[in-house]
C-alpha cells in the first residue's frame, strides 16, 4: 500500500503507508538531520494527517539538546504544533473525513479513564499511561512517539482538533502549543473586562497571550526586559508596556495586577513580581527554567497572593481556544522556513532572534 501525495502538496510521497520523511536529532545536542520514521498502521479510530506546517517551540530545543535531564529517546523527531489535512481515516472514525483541516498539540493519548481525563483535563492525566507526549514518549503500543517535523502523522481522532477555515494553517500551527498554553490560564483565572493582566516576556508564548487577553477584554500590560519591543506589544493589543530592567517599574506597578503570566524560562526575582499583584492576585508560571526558583513566603502572605503553574489544556479546551481564535482572527506572527533551516532556527530562537514563531513548511522535508 502507498500514500499518494495529496493534489498540489507533494507532502506525502509514494512510500509504504507507515513511513514518512522527517527531521530528527540523532543524539542529544547533535544537529537535526533528514531521515525517515515509521508510523503505525491506521487503527479503528486513527486518522492519517498530511502535515503542512509545524511550529518550532523552545521545548523542542530543550528536548533535542537533552537539557531537561539525562536519557531520553533518540533519534528524536520534535514538533508538537502540528497543522495539516486529513488524508485517510480508520473504519470507525466519526469526527473527521479526508480533506478536513486538523491540528495536533503536545499530546497524542492519555489513559482516558482517570478523573482528570473524564473531566477533559487530559494534560493532567493521573492514570497508569499518563499523558503521552507527541514526541519522546512511549505510547500504549510500546512505541516511542515521534513528532511533527515530518510529512505525516497517525493519531487517534480523539486527540486531534479542528482548525477553523478562517485561520491559515501556517500561522495557526503555534496555537496548538503556545496558544493553548496562554488561553488555559487566562480562562481559568477569569481574565476579562475589569481585570488587569500582565504578560512577562514578549516572545513566542507572550505575543499570543497579549492577543488573547486583549480579545477577552482585559487591560493588558507587557513586562519585558527592555522597551525594544514596545511598538510590537502595543500593535498586538497591549495597553501598556514597561521595562523590567528599570527598578522604577516595580515601584510604579506595585499592587496593580489581578493576574501575571510568566512566559519566560530564565530565572527571575519572583518575589519582586509577586509584589506587582493586587490582594488575591495570582502569578502563573508557564516557562520552564532549568533550575529551582526561590520563593520568599512573605511576598505571598502579605497580600494573600497565589503562585501557580499551568500547562497547555485538554482537548476540549484546545478546540475552544481554536474556535475563539477563529472568531477573533488570532494567529501567531510567524516566519515560515524550509526544513533545511531548522538548525539555524534553533540558534536564532536561543538568541531571541525571531518575531515571533518559526514554522517549518513540511513540504520541504
UniProtKB/TrEMBL annotation:
Q: Name one Pfam family in it.
A: ADH_N
Q: Which residues form the Enoyl reductase (ER) domain?
A: 30-360
Show the catalytic activity. a primary alcohol + NADP(+) = an aldehyde + NADPH + H(+)
Annotated GO molecular function terms are: alcohol dehydrogenase (NADP+) activity; zinc ion binding
Enzyme Commission number(s) of this protein: 1.1.1.2
Q: Can you tell me which family this protein belongs to?
A: Belongs to the zinc-containing alcohol dehydrogenase family.
- Name the record gives this protein: alcohol dehydrogenase (NADP(+))
Amino acid at each position: 500500500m502507498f500514500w499518494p501525495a495529496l493534489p498540489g502538496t507533494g507532502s506525502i510521497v509514494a512510500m509504504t503507508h507507515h513511513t514518512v520523511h522527517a527531521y530528527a536529532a540523532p543524539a542529544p545536542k547533535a544537529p537535526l538531520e533528514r531521515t525517515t520514521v515509521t508510523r503505525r498502521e491506521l487503527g479503528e479510530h486513527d486518522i492519517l494527517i498530511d502535515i503542512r506546517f509545524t511550529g518550532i517551540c523552545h521545548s523542542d530545543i530543550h528536548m533535542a539538546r537533552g537539557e531537561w535531564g539525562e536519557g531520553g529517546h533518540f533519534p528524536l523527531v520534535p514538533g508538537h504544533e502540528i497543522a495539516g489535512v486529513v488524508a485517510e481515516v480508520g473504519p470507525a472514525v466519526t469526527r473527521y473525513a479526508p480533506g478536513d483541516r486538523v491540528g495536533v498539540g503536545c499530546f497524542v493519548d492519555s489513559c482516558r479513564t482517570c478523573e482528570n481525563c473524564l473531566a477533559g483535563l487530559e494534560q493532567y492525566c493521573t492514570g497508569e499511561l499518563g499523558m503521552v507526549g507527541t514526541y519522546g514518549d512511549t505510547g500504549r503500543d510500546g512505541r516511542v512517539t515521534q513528532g511533527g517535523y515530518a510529512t505525516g502523522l497517525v493519531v487517534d481522532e480523539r486527540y486531534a482538533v479542528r482548525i477553523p477555515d478562517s485561520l491559515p494553517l501556517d500561522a495557526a500551527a503555534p496555537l496548538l502549543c503556545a496558544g493553548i498554553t496562554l488561553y488555559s490560564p487566562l480562562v481559568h483565572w477569569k481574565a476579562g473586562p475589569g481585570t488587569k493582566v500582565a504578560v512577562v516576556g514578549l516572545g513566542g508564548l507572550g505575543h499570543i497571550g497579549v492577543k488573547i487577553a486583549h480579545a477577552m477584554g482585559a487591560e493588558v500590560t507587557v513586562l519585558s526586559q527592555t522597551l525594544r519591543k514596545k511598538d510590537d506589544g502595543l500593535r498586538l493589543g497591549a495597553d501598556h508596556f514597561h521595562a523590567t530592567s528599570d527598578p522604577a517599574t516595580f515601584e510604579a506597578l506595585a499592587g496593580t495586577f489581578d493576574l501575571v503570566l510568566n512566559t519566560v524560562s530564565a530565572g527571575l526575582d519572583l518575589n519582586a513580581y509577586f509584589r506587582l499583584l493586587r490582594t488575591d492576585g495570582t502569578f502563573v508560571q508557564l516557562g520552564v527554567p532549568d533550575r529551582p526558583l526561590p520563593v520568599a513566603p512573605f511576598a505571598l502572605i502579605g497580600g494573600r497572593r497565589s503562585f501557580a503553574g499551568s500547562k497547555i489544556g485538554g482537548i476540549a479546551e484546545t478546540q475552544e481556544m481554536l474556535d475563539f481564535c477563529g472568531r477573533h482572527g488570532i494567529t501567531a506572527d510567524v516566519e515560515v522556513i524550509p526544513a533545511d533551516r531548522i538548525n539555524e532556527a534553533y540558534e536564532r530562537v536561543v538568541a531571541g532572534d525571531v518575531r515571533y514563531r518559526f514554522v517549518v513548511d513540511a513540504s520541504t522535508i
